[in-house]
Amino acid sequence: MKRKAHTMDSTCSTATDTCTGDSSSTNSLAVYASAALSTMGLSTILLMQLDGISRRILSPPRLLAKRRQEYRYVVEQSSEYNALMVRQHIGGGKGYYDPKMDLSSTWEKITKNDTTEMEEIIAEILDVKKPSPVIVAMEQDLLDDHDPNTFYLFLAFPPRSSGGGVATPGPPKLYRRVQLPLVVFCEELAKAFEGQMTSTALCFVVDASSGLGSETLTTVVKQSNHGVATISNPAWMTSLALLVSKINKTHYITTQQFERIIFSLCRLDAWRVRDSIGTSRTVLFSLPGQACVPLLLPLIQKVFVHERHVFVYDGCCHSVEMGMALRNQYGSSYRQQAAKEEWEEVSASPKVITSTFSMAPLRFNRELPGTLANLNGVQASIVESWMASVDVFLDMKSKEKKNFYTPFVCRMGFLMKRSGIGNGDGRDMSELALKNVLEYITGSKSRALPDEVMTKALSSLTVMRTKFEDAVKGSKLNAGEKILIEKCVFANKAILIGEKTLLDTVQPKEDWSLKAAKKLKSCMCCIPGEGDEEEEDEDGDSDDGEGSKPKEGMNMSAPGAFATKTRSNYIDGKAQFAFDPTMFNK
């Protein structure tokens, strides 16, 4: 999705304080100045110069706290601006909409006590002959003196099409607008969808590649035209991620309620695109950027445990280069506007924001502030968001005996034709890797994909590969920068050592598997030698009982080290390092 930065002047509000402890006046001044520059849409170079000054005068912990305040501010402002653009779209478009006229009287307000009205809305949503509403925003009604703390869900019902279709109109139109209590309504909507029979599968793509993987897969799936409806980077998911990030600061919404909210809204959005679903009977959700992954993936996995999940990742250095390319192309301003006034683009979060600004700070690590302080602000932000995405993924994989998280783990190195990835001899594995992931997304592993589908998919992949290779030419890291980034990654022991290194990257082959068949006993910091022993994978990664105890002499830093004797349904494959440090420089 193409966006352009909108550089309109605006008044800078105070950055949201997301850290604890006292801040010096110098720290606060740097935060406000950075936020002001970002608001005015000034260049990344100026922001980096200001960040360079902060690196000289602030200690690493204070520098990291300042940066995180800036990240938070930009993401929040971007989400609000995105919601404004959606309101404009459903209010008639740029030439018709007036924000001053978008008052409470414009929205049909339904309170938590209006049970009958909510039932009528749900019945209208489930009517197969009517187009489904779009999700506009999730906000508190600050003008409500009686209940200002309640969060509301803002929905907009499109006008009926003259042709009788139920698809969401592309161009802006005047929609019927409804305001509903978020928690109460989503609980009732979830119950309604649970009682509805459906043959449609959902597939969730989460990213750790600065948007390279998710955009590539989504575009290829659309171009291959094999009956998969796609929903890319929905802005409402970014808004929900921001709400989830405040869960420790507010008691208004519990974790269980968030689960019901995300279940009902995903089902609602999938129901909205039902006219686009074809042969594969699948709706593909591409989550909005690696920054949202730590906040949304655990919730989505829990409520959609039996649906399909794809984790697409790239090496940290490649991801930083991709993120820097996005910043160079779109800038650092949160005022990102869609290139076209079409619903699919207007309703999507700008990937430059959700891929390069961290939303969920990593767990405390004594070494991390110092290593991140060696990077400029742009690189540090991308590295932290990438590490947070990978960290939560590996944490969930380490608990898969309980959470049943078994995604298709897709490494972009295969699809991008990078030599030395997986096979080591430079052979082109991209076609087979693409075939494998398409078989999983479309549910076609047991039957061959039509030749015309693969032809279109390969053509689309070639175009995307060329596009991204050209995009990163001006953002290549030098050897020194790569070394500094590697040190940041090594500082997070959860990624490179310990039981959380089980990754299960799918190896390109005809008889592919979601699980690696063998494990190596080398430590993660070394290249495996010819004498390394391999043994059959076995299960037993539960936290209770004898099955969770490691064998004597077992190296717990090896991939698959928690596999013990109960699992026998693995097929042959070759275990690879989760993130081989030697690959960062390639």
Write the layout of secondary structure elements.
Elements: E1 3-5, H1 25-39, H2 44-57, H3 60-90, E2 108-109, H4 115-125, E3 134-140, E4 151-157, E5 176-181, H5 182-194, E6 201-208, H6 212-224, E7 228-232, H7 235-245, H8 255-272, E8 282-286, H9 293-303, E9 308-313, H10 316-330, E10 336-338, H11 343-346, H12 351-356, H13 368-373, H14 377-398, H15 400-403, E11 408-411, H16 412-415, H17 430-442, H18 451-471, H19 479-491, H20 493-496, E12 518-520, E13 534-536
Helix pairs in contact: 1-2, 1-3, 3-7, 5-8, 6-18, 8-9, 9-14, 10-14
What does this structure look like?
There is one protein chain. Helix 3 (60-90) packs across helix 7 (235-245) and helix 8 (255-272) packs across helix 9 (293-303). The protein has 586 residues and is α/β, with parallel strands linked by helices. The two termini are 28 Å apart. The strands form four sheets. Strands 7-8-6-9-11 form a five-stranded parallel β-sheet, sandwiched between helices. The protein has a four-stranded mixed β-sheet with strand order 2-5-4-3, with helices on both faces. Strands 1-10 form a two-stranded antiparallel sheet. The longest helix has 31 residues, at 60-90. It is built from 20 helices and 13 strands.
